[in-house]
Specification:
This protein is α+β, with helices and mostly antiparallel strands and 295 residues long. The protein is 44% helix and 24% strand.
Length: 295
């Protein structure tokens, strides 16, 4: 397991004096392709609005997590799961003074789609209907997947993952809504996103971006929020972190990754990366390297 985020250590109960110590490990197990894994305890951590390309299946072991999801705050306590579909903006913070401890699986849409096609009656693109599900049995399954991955038990990890996803789709599955016919504003939002992706390191101002697209700044801002659930500058920070993750996975040094995606320096990347991924980029990359090169 990784140490605390600030590099300290904790006693056997994971506490420093009377205060729980924050710690997190974000990793991959090579025998579960397309799935990210996380174990964490957070107390003061606040996740800014962000998205994931993968599904989020977070099993709360103790404490309470509060997260903003589709216009309102929802809470997940011990024995519940926080469930977020891909590309859905959300936040995260403690709902009680002692924070929350949880384990999370991040399966790709392809992994969930494969399981759904074999085991569920969901037609179309599968997803989760509700962001919170009280189901201690599946919470235990998620933690068993993580334990099996830590122990190198590939058969158990794969079996338990499929069992957990199948159960969640049966209890809380549905078809993700189809995209509506895009309006002119939505088309401008899509074009704006493409510009920001292409010019991520040196993005234009909102005024210049709107002028390039033949619209006004406030019209573009409204359209972008309606389409992606966040303003362009917030989306860009999220996208930069996503691309930095890919660079780190490929072995790029954090300082180089920071500049490549448009952050001013590594501390700038560190701050945003930890507020979205939950661990600093250096710790994230070390875990990835351990999977690719177990020496």
């Amino acid at each position: 397991m990784a140490g605390t985020e600030n590099g300290g250590t904790a006693g056997p109960a994971g506490r420093h004096g009377d205060r729980p110590v924050e710690r997190a490990r974000h990793w991959r197990y090579e025998e579960l392709p397309g799935v990210d894994l996380l174990r964490a305890r957070y107390v003061r951590k606040t996740f800014v609005r962000h998205t994931h390309e993968h599904f989020v299946i977070a099993a709360i072991a103790d404490g309470v997590e509060v997260f903003h999801h589709r216009g309102s705050d929802v809470s997940a306590g011990a024995g519940a799961l926080a469930l977020v579909n891909p590309d859905t903006p959300h936040t995260g913070r403690a709902g009680v003074p002692e924070g929350w401890r949880y384990g999370a699986l991040y399966p790709s849409p392809e992994v969930v789609g494969e399981i759904a096609a074999e085991t569920s009656t969901v037609r179309g693109t599968p997803g989760f209907a509700s962001p919170v599900l009280d189901d201690p049995y599946t919470v235990r399954l998620v933690h068993q997947v993580l334990r099996a991955a830590e122990e190198g038990n590939a058969l158990a990890a794969d079996t338990l993952l499929r069992t957990a996803v199948t159960r969640l789709l049966r209890l809380n599955g549905g078809r993700l809504p189809q995209r509506r016919t895009p309006t002119a504003g939505a088309r401008n939002a899509v074009r704006a996103r493409a510009v920001l992706e292409e010019r991520m390191a040196e993005p234009p101002t909102l005024e210049r971006l709107a002028a390039e697209l033949g619209t006004s700044p406030f019209a573009l801002l409204r359209a972008f929020r309606d389409t992606y659930g966040m303003p362009p500058h917030t989306w860009l920070t999220d996208a930069r972190v996503r691309r930095a993750r890919l660079l780190l996975d490929a072995g790029t040094a954090p300082a180089e990754a920071a500049v490549t995606v448009g952050f001013t320096d590594q501390p700038h990347l560190n701050r945003h990366f930890a507020r979205i991924v939950g661990v600093p980029p250096g710790a994230y990359q070390r875990e990835r390297k351990n999977v690719q090169d177990p020496r």
